[in-house]
From TrEMBL:
The lineage of its organism: Bacteria, Bacillati, Bacillota, Clostridia, Eubacteriales. InterPro entries: Trp_synth_b-like, Trp_synth_beta/beta-like, TrpB-like_PALP, TrpB-like_PALP_sf. The beta subunit is responsible for the synthesis of L-tryptophan from indole and L-serine. Pathway: Amino-acid biosynthesis; L-tryptophan biosynthesis; L-tryptophan from chorismate: step 5/5. It catalyses: (1S,2R)-1-C-(indol-3-yl)glycerol 3-phosphate + L-serine = D-glyceraldehyde 3-phosphate + L-tryptophan + H2O. It comes from Candidatus Faeciplasma pullistercoris. This is Tryptophan synthase beta chain. One of its GO terms (cellular component) is cytoplasm. Tetramer of two alpha and two beta chains. Pfam families: PALP (PF00291). GO terms for molecular function: L-serine hydro-lyase (adding indole, L-tryptophan-forming) activity; pyridoxal phosphate binding; tryptophan synthase activity.
Length: 458
């Protein structure tokens, strides 16, 4: 089919929408490593996990074999509010770059939370509600996940308790207040509300917190409050399962027009949007039906894939969570203070870590000033003001398109545009004022935290 027939935005009819999430693990011959109990170093059982997570999500977390999970009707109904998300042909960007490449992006920023995180937030809130729970606890960094979860909880009438990394709580009042609009209670972390929070404060007085520390607090609160469970917005297998809706919609839309991407690009923090976007494509690759060049993009200041170690590590600073085998910079790693681009988690999805280690995908890291420059270039031609996180993918999509310009190759590029950046204007301001630098951790700094990885015999 000729290019002219492909609309600027490809939407799906209601009848074309995915009705089930796709579990990529079912097509992996080499399965990702299981979560381990840090006390025994034995795989976490469903029973142990159910203290922290609700039962249905524990099943999804542990299931490496079921290929499809039906999306419950109530979640399908919620998705209708903001899905399908548009798959956009970036004609204007292509023209501006003068590239023969064809660029598509899947835009997940069309909802109030401003990112893809709502796809999993509604699923996790739904299963908690269905189990008769009273509420959920979680952590949030910049606030996208907390916002998404508070929207989902408000819709279902669940209580939502968010521990927000203290520096974000103080410096980013907008998302904090959006969460409150949706009825969530928001506590700056570390706090004196939890044992682990009090310990961290005693050890590091005046600390402005970290994601790993907020996770520890949220888990403690959930396990010690009857009727509550903990939910997490990234990294876990269940989250990647829910996010497969991004990739499924993309694939259905592209198949409609007979388009097959050559390169698929996504930003990677904990790996959920990338894992979701690539899921059905990676499935084909694993089954030997098609080949794709799959690229994870991470910040040079938090380079889990490109400079991390594939090993069992803690998911949180307080070391209360199970151990996950993943590419990690060590649970004590905190990106430099001037890092403004998000994607600051020390680890990476165990599923993506396994696929990367087995050579099914590659990863690149990019310095933040180049990311913001790409973000502006994109905003000026495509109209959307992208989230800094998403802009990592934009940067590499542009780089790949410019390579095509040199070689004359007409490659098709698909990338995930995970969200909008309206609440990240302080980061953009730093970029404009020339206050943004590209701090890249030294090998010694990285080695320091890797030394503290837990010892696990496999
Ligand atoms: C949270 C977030 C990310 C990174 O999380 P992943 O789990 O790696 O997808 C990327 N983009 C936006 C807009 C986000 O809010």
């Amino acid at each position: 089919m000729s290019n002219e027939k492909i609309p600027y935005k490809i939407y799906l009819e209601e009848s074309e929408m995915p009705k089930a999430w796709y579990n990529l693990r079912a097509d992996m011959k080499q399965k990702p490593a299981p979560l381990l109990n840090p006390a025994t170093n034995k795989p976490m059982t469903a029973e142990e996990l159910s203290v922290v997570f609700c039962d249905e999500l524990v099943k999804q977390e542990l299931d490496n074999d079921t290929k499809y999970f039906d999306i419950p009707q109530e979640i399908l109904d919620f998705y209708k509010m903001y899905r399908p998300s548009p798959l956009v042909r970036a004609y204007c960007l292509e023209k501006k770059l003068g590239t023969p490449a064809k660029i598509y992006y899947k835009f997940e920023g069309n909802n109030t939370s401003g990112s893809h995180k709502l796809n999993s937030a509604i699923a996790q809130a739904y299963y908690a509600k269905n189990q008769g729970l009273k509420g959920v606890t979680t952590e949030t960094g910049a606030g996208q996940w907390g916002t998404a979860l508070s929207m989902a909880c408000a819709y279902l009438g669940l209580d939502c308790k968010v521990y927000m990394v203290k520096c974000s709580y103080e410096q980013k009042p907008f998302r904090r207040e959006v969460m409150k609009v949706y009825g969530a209670s928001v506590t700056p972390s570390p706090s004196t509300e939890t044992k682990v929070g009090r310990e961290i404060l005693k050890e590091h007085p005046g600390t402005t917190g970290s994601l790993g520390c907020a996770i520890s607090e949220a888990v403690e609160k959930a396990t010690e409050t009857p009727g509550y469970r903990y939910v997490l917005g990234s990294v876990l297998n269940q989250v990647m399962l829910h996010q497969s809706v991004i990739g499924l919609e993309s694939k259905i839309a592209l198949d409609k027009y007979g388009v097959k991407p050559d390169i698929i690009i996504g930003c990677a923090g904990g790996g959920s949007n990338l894992g979701g976007l690539i899921a059905p494509f990676m499935g084909e690759k694993l089954r030997g039906e098609a080949d794709y060049d799959i690229v994870a993009v991470e910040p040079a200041s938090c380079p889990s894939f490109t400079r991390g170690t594939y090993a069992y590590d803690f998911c949180d600073t307080g070391m209360v969570c199970p151990l996950a085998k993943m590419y990690t910079l060590g649970s004590g790693f905190i990106p430099a203070a001037n890092h403004a681009g998000g994607l600051r988690y020390h680890g990476m999805s165990p599923v993506l870590s396994k696929l990367y280690d087995d050579g099914y995908m590659r990863a690149v890291s990019v310095p933040q000033t180049e990311v913001f420059a790409a973000a502006e270039q994109f905003a000026r031609v495509e109209g959307i003001l992208p989230a800094p996180e998403s802009s990592h993918a934009i940067k590499v999509a542009i780089d790949e398109a410019l390579k095509c310009k040199e070689t004359g190759e007409e490659k098709t590029i698909l990338f995930g545009l995970t969200g909008t950046g309206y609440f990240d204007m302080v980061a953009y301001e730093k970029f404009h004022d020339g206050q943004m630098s590209d701090y890249i951790p030294t090998d010694e700094e990285i080695a320091q935290n890797i030394k503290k990885l837990p010892k696990v015999d496999e």
